[in-house]
Amino acid sequence: MLEFIIGGIRSGKSRYAEWLAQESNFEVYYIATCKSIDNDLKYRIKNHRKRRPLFWNLIEEPIDIEKIIIKFDNKKKIFIIDCLTLWINNNLFYNPNTIKFKCIEIIKLLKYIKGRILIISTEIGEGIIPINKLSRKYIDIIGEFHQQITFLVDRVWSLCSGIPKLIKYNL
């Protein structure tokens, strides 16, 4: 089963995904895409780690999440990808010419996954159009990718102030 969890910054997306994973009784693979590039991010990452059970498999992978999924996919496993917006940011920074290809590859991969995947991403489509060309490209890629993901997944959860709302459900 594929589930997409979207919401604003600090809306409770990660906590909700972690709760869903704990309820599943599957082996959890937490794929963290955030790079600790400053003290604030180091602090946030530290707090995220404190919340999670020690027996979960934590894999910090800012670029090649598809390799991790392929390596460990199994119907008795659940993956949390936290989060797509940071993954796109990282790829846009380090691999700007391949980001659209990587998005297509992720979509293709998700069609054949045996395990359960909880994909977290930040809603970016409710703000103003950025004045900067790179920021507009980033917003455009994320917006398009979100639409492709939500078309594919079984469930879409929208979070606001820690409250999940199911906005898509396929049986």
UniProtKB/TrEMBL annotation:
Q: Which domain of life is it from?
A: Bacteria
Q: Which Gene3D superfamilies match?
A: P-loop containing nucleotide triphosphate hydrolases
Identify one Pfam family in the record.
Answer: CobU
Catalytic reaction(s) noted: adenosylcob(III)inamide + GTP = adenosylcob(III)inamide phosphate + GDP + H(+); adenosylcob(III)inamide phosphate + GTP + H(+) = adenosylcob(III)inamide-GDP + diphosphate; adenosylcob(III)inamide + ATP = adenosylcob(III)inamide phosphate + ADP + H(+)
The record's EC number reads 2.7.1.156, 2.7.7.62
GO MF? adenosylcobinamide kinase activity; ATP binding; cobinamide phosphate guanylyltransferase activity; GTP binding
Q: Does the keyword Cytoplasm apply?
A: no
The reply on keyword Hydrolase is no
Q: In which pathway does this enzyme or protein participate?
A: Cofactor biosynthesis; adenosylcobalamin biosynthesis; adenosylcobalamin from cob(II)yrinate a,c-diamide: step 6/7; Cofactor biosynthesis; adenosylcobalamin biosynthesis; adenosylcobalamin from cob(II)yrinate a,c-diamide: step 5/7
Q: Where on this chain does GTP bind? A: G7, G8, I9, R10, S11, G12, K13, S14, R49, K50, R51, R52, E60, D82
User: Which positions are catalytic residues?
Assistant: H48 (gmp-histidine intermediate)
| Biological process annotations from GO | cobalamin biosynthetic process
Regarding protein family, the annotation reads:
Belongs to the CobU/CobP family.
User: Sorted alphabetically, which NCBIfam families does this protein's record hold?
Assistant: PRK05800.1 (NF004469)
According to its UniProt entry, the function of this protein is described as: Catalyzes ATP-dependent phosphorylation of adenosylcobinamide and addition of GMP to adenosylcobinamide phosphate.
Mind telling me what this protein is named? Bifunctional adenosylcobalamin biosynthesis protein
Q: Per the UniProt entry, what species is this protein from, by scientific name?
A: Candidatus Johnevansia muelleri
Lineage of the organism: Bacteria, Pseudomonadati, Pseudomonadota, Gammaproteobacteria, Candidatus Johnevansiales
Gene from which the chain derives: cobP
